[in-house]
Amino acid sequence: MAGIYLHIPFCKKACHYCDFHFSTSLHYKDQLLEAMHREIELRAGLLPEVHTIYFGGGTPSLLTDAELSTLLQSLNKHFKLANDVQVTLEANPDDLNFDRLMALKAIGIQRLSIGIQSFHNEDLIWMNRSHQAKQALQCIEDAVEIGFDELNIDLIFGYPLLSDEKWTSNIQQALSLPIQHLSCYSMTVEDRTALSYQIKKGQTAAMEDGQAARQYLMLMEAMEAAGWEHYEISNYCKPGFQSRHNTSYWQSEAYLGIGPSAHGYLNPERYWNIANNAKYMESLLAGNLAEEREYLSEDDQYNEYLMTRLRTSAGITKADLEKRFGSDAWPLLLSELELYRSELGSEAVASAFSLTESTLSLTRAGKLLADSHIAALFRA
Amino acid sequence: MEHIRNFCIIAHIDHGKSTLADRLLEHTRTVDTRNMKAQTLDDMDLERERGITIKSHAIKMQYTLEGKPYVLNLIDTPGHVDFSYEVSRSIAACEGALLIVDAAQGIQAQTISNLYLAIDQGLEIIPILNKMDLPGAMPEEVKDQIVDLIGCSRDEIIPASGKTGLGVDAILEAIVNRVPAPKGDPNKPLKALIFDSVFNSYRGIIAYFKVVDGSIKTHDEVKFMATGRKYDAEEIGALLLDRKPTPEVKTGDVGYIISGIKEAREVKVGDTITLINNPTPEPIKGFEDVKPMVFAGIYPVDTEDFEELRESMYKLQLNDASLVFEPESSVALGFGFRCGFLGMLHMEIIQERLEREFNMTVITTVPNVSYNAYTTDGEMNIVRNPTDLPDPSKLIKVEEPYISASIITSSEFVGNILSLCIGRRGMLKNQTYLTPTRVELTFDLPLAEVVFDFYDKLKSLSKGYASFDYHPIGYQESKLVKLDIFINKQPVDALSAVIHRDRAYEWGKKICEKLKELIPRQQFEIAIQAGIGAKIIARESISALRKDVTAKCYGGDISRKRKLLEKQKKGKKRMRQVGNVEIPQQAFMAVLKID
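Output (structure tokens, whole complex):
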């Protein structure tokens, strides 16, 4: 299920926690889009067939319908798109009024991923989001009415303003909506963000990992009780509605990234575009890619495989692991696990991993410390 | 012999010794200006970077005055208290000394102690006021200090600047006119003083010497009197910028000998070279076997690098005989070496040389001194590792080494320095005003209180205007205890320290706090305790890690996240396991950074 990701590096304003690549200045938007068209031409045909297209950012809903449509036409011209290609747009509620949704549907957007984050206005203000809670509810209602088949919303937990009661109400609100997919992220303090600065200055309390762990567990329990699948660390869906695009990342499928800071993966190489709008435009408009490349060694590939798979509910299966990394890969993995057991104690390891004859995955408790557990099994 | 002048330079660090020496070399055309790196005499990169001389060096200059040719042998000396014995031997090889004083900073403690050594050896002192070009130069005041110290007249002091070249002619003339020629007897049997040695990977150990009596010729059968070893003088010669082989080195002159010696330990600074078939009856006085003062464990960061570390230490010892080491093992750190150093600077130098020259990254444990522990069975044990201190029930008393420390500072800092030294269990022995504003304080201090951070503290208390010098004065009994650190009830041997009983509580508390800062949270709670014997005197705990999971892992995050986790895994590999707790390397050195 190969896919193409398009990074739209513009936002109306900066959310305090975000360290993604974006600019709040829109005045060179035309030039940037021109550069992205050039990049599409330069990467033409690199995938045999495209099953999913994803506009991410930034805030792709800041582009006009015509601009989005032109990008889609360009992709159609330079790549073979599968008959059932799915097109997802990340969007903020304040960009999605009824007419806009109609137009998006008309240009071929099928799936929306809506950045809601919280249903409480005071939280949205604290995060410096540009929308209000009621806009979130309204746009979902409208999207369903207009006939979008698949909707995802994003929520965040584990920040100081979010009491357990508020978190429960956010989860229940989400479950009451006609959506198929939910992405939930623990608030992460990234370097060089307003949030990290506020914490250093003592203006905001630091994130507390006991709270994050507790709220993560609350979420997992609630989603399971509602019959949803927790198919990846941060992703939940109604059965049959896994994100096609994101799943391709976790299945080590090939993908292309277009736009500043976007990453692409064509086994065994990965490339990433420069995370600077001006330099990106300058280079592409002169007809050159603005990328860096890295070759993934067998160990790199193995570690990435381990990392992405252990984050999924399916985990690692013996057959697939051996197919990719050789017939001794499974016993080697088990011996790494044995080593970890001797370091950490067998009880701790037993509560973190679920191991059968032919599968290895993380338990609910294991997911809380997924990074530690995954790193422990890495090939050094 | 009348045309030879042997001289050394006495100066405090930063007073411009090396730069001024460079000017002398240029002026006598010993080195071509174009080929000259700044500070030619400082061979090692480390020396050039730190601006100090670690090893001594020697160089021969040709100089003509009033139509007569002279040979000037400059014997450079190390400039740090750790190496004072080497300084004394270099001084013993000379008849004169240039006393270089920074015109802005005045006389410092190190200068004074070396100056006294030179005066005791009967050297002619040529005082030089250096850095006259500096805007902050106070020539008149510093001249007063010099006059007070050596009783010379004011016009004997030569104003100079290594930077501008001021005074270089006057210095060269003074060396010829004021430093006496050597006074040896060419007809007596060979007696030569070894004042330094260097290691050369092709030629082995090269010893530098000064011929006191007699002369030495190529292929003489020689004996080093202190070690008793015998050699064939394969090659002898003069020390120009490079070595120049000559058939003979005559009375009063300085030269080098290569005789197939492989290990620095065979060549002891201060030893006497003589002929086997015509030996001198008496060796040159003043020889001492240099004893290490400070001990610390050195361990490889990766436990599998132990053999490589052994090899590296062995190679370092080839050209640094003052380094001693023996294998030891630690529960926390695995296999490593207990090493003896001349002082803290020496320890840092060894650590840096291991890293730079041998690419070894090492963990150095908290340094300690050597204790004498007397037990009920009537034995005296020498304890160089805190974990070896006998059980308190068997211990009658413990003695620790004391030093006499001389600190020279400006009178305004006396109060601060008194409280520092008294806080370090020091006893004020003497207080002398060298000038109305410069004071020399003499303390008896336990060496252990000086081995780490004392010098840094002294510098910051005095805004850099205090200099420090010391010499050992023997052992004294002290109320010392062994403080152990426990992590989840397991003792961490590498963190044990011998410490004065009155300071144990405070120390234990600080170590626990520091460790709490440095040990990352793990999947379970960690208890950190400090105790004396079975009694716990301080504790801290690190709560368990509750959540460690990256929220987002999409296209652009995958490789970044993989690299982060790989780094995490590599970091863990370098940590040391105590029980099931992983302890980062910095924790073992953290104690060095405790206030």
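Chain A has 16 helices and 15 strands.
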